[in-house]
């Protein structure tokens, strides 16, 4: 039973064929998350898979919107791993309060909300009503390591 998910949230991820990754080491001078009161504020998470970015470039140029949407889901999975590392169990999350998604965008690309839906839809699937959140989807000129997306979130817990 050692490979069984440790929470209902992780069980829902497993049903989707996903597992929480190891928390990525920060790429600069910051920590992965900070707790204040009953809120976890994550730092921006890149869509690392096994420590590597599998997709790079600007959305609307080198990266299509559907691929970027999948990358946003990967980034928020990494953010969930950070939250778990801070509070021990994702079942303690009572609400995903806010999601901010940054999309490295070609100047002509205006579909940032659709890209960030990759993160929002995954949160809704695994957290149910508690995963419904406020959100910003922002187009930017560039992201660290030429990532196509970056996602941060604020989670409330008990």
Automatic annotation (TrEMBL):
<dbReference type="InterPro" id="IPR013813">
    <property type="entry name" value="Endoribo_LPSP/chorism_mut-like"/>
</dbReference>
<feature type="domain" description="Endoribonuclease L-PSP/chorismate mutase-like">
    <location>
        <begin position="10"/>
        <end position="156"/>
    </location>
</feature>
<protein>
    <recommendedName>
        <fullName>Endoribonuclease L-PSP/chorismate mutase-like domain-containing protein</fullName>
    </recommendedName>
</protein>
<dbReference type="InterPro" id="IPR035959">
    <property type="entry name" value="RutC-like_sf"/>
</dbReference>
<dbReference type="Pfam" id="PF14588">
    <property type="entry name" value="YjgF_endoribonc"/>
</dbReference>
